[in-house]
């Protein structure tokens, strides 16, 4: 293992983040605060408690997931896309670095950033609503697993994209709708039976549900199924990354 | 000439061995058609060829940026695919394009490369490298604040950051001013003195002529020639002598048929091409023959053909 290379890539990515700390941290915090004001305080006061949890608190796990997903994807996709775009990727490809080390550096940094952001959002949320976390270890596990999985997914998008538009395409057209329809703001049990079944095909449902269980001990689907589905998605992403490095897809002519 | 003719008896001191290297891109374009070449340890090798000849593809394969379609490459005895870590550790690459980060400082970006190659931090070595490239004053500048020439130096510093044995310079002086070009040449010479092998691609013949120990000419994906520069110059080095005539001639008189003569400047100049290294250049006989034919001249000049003429001749021959 070339750990120094992993460290170099990781350090490079974290330095990039620090340079743009304001937009990296402040903008998700502001947008989350807006969700709390609108959904939690204004609309939430008119909504009855779900499973005995006040609506304002109920949406916290979903909001953290929303940030975690979008930030993991955007951080990791930009992290690998930009060197491809500018040409500096030549340095990574010509270095004695294995695919595993490249992925550890880029995905590790992206996941770190989104976990930090997730915790900041959680802290922000606790200012608005009283929070309780029944299963902190499971909460951390979901946080790490989701950050790693979706950073990996973002890495894939960053390799697949051949323009800045495509970089935005997947998050905008697929991830955001899936997150909003994944029970971030409601329990899928509140849906008509048909749509409840359809929702089970949405991977985000499992993430949000499992994550919410770690807070309130209640969930739409079993926590074990949630973990298994997240693990499955992680394995899928890993397999795709392995294929990319074996074939050199979009990296090497 | 066939490329296989350049397969030298395997030199024990070869630092790079390229064998039957071919590359066909997904578009069907055949960039390399079975190149076999050995680079000797410690030499400066110039790879010469017109744009699109396959120079960059060759370098890119050796450095791991492009997958070969066929053939093998070993760097310092390590196969570039099976043993890529050791092979790549030995190589520093200065790419043709000015591809740099924008917001990193010069010092950070050079240290980053060192880390990428698995070397421990060594601020003293980085300082030495930056000083040798006149970059020390700029160490805390962001790369985007630098001029094009300075960025080129940064790329060289990055390539040297991990103390490579082999340095690839892909078109190092394209778009570089005269002063920097001189600096670059001096640097390459200094590197050679420390035992670093330097391979440079160029389409500036003067660069190869000035720098190289050996020259390889590549065209249409084939190595058409590999030769010691001095041997190449003397072997293919033709010389011309031009007589400026007092009276213009309508045509070369039949009595001079035996000489390789060309009439120019509206019949006012007669140019004789000969091999400067030959035992008999034929100049004396020609002058006698001119006198006998009653042709007198007011002046004469000689011209040594350069590597450029050799190169143009080779490439034309192949086209």
UniProtKB/TrEMBL annotation, chain A:
Keywords: Cell membrane, Membrane, Transmembrane, Transmembrane helix, Transport
Limits of the ABC transmembrane type-2 domain: 19-248
Major localization listed first in the record, in broad terms: membrane
TM segment ranges: 21-43, 55-82, 140-161, 167-186, 221-245
Pfam families: ABC2_membrane (PF01061)
Membrane topology: Multi-pass membrane protein
Subcellular location: Cell inner membrane; Membrane
InterPro entries, per database record: ABC-2_transport_permease, ABC2_TM, ABC2_TM_bact-type, ABC_2_transport
Entries under PANTHER family matching the protein: INNER MEMBRANE TRANSPORT PERMEASE YADH-RELATED, TRANSPORT PERMEASE PROTEIN
Similarity remark: Belongs to the ABC-2 integral membrane protein family.
Protein name (record): Transport permease protein
UniProtKB/TrEMBL annotation, chain B:
SMART domains: AAA (SM00382)
GO molecular function: ATP binding
UniProt keyword Zinc, yes or no: no
Pfam families, sorted: ABC_tran (PF00005)
Residue intervals of the ABC transporter domain: 16-245
Official protein name in the record: ABC transporter ATP-binding protein
Protein species of origin: Mesorhizobium liriopis
Family: Belongs to the ABC transporter superfamily.
Entry keyword annotation includes Transport: yes
Keywords: ATP-binding, Nucleotide-binding, Transport
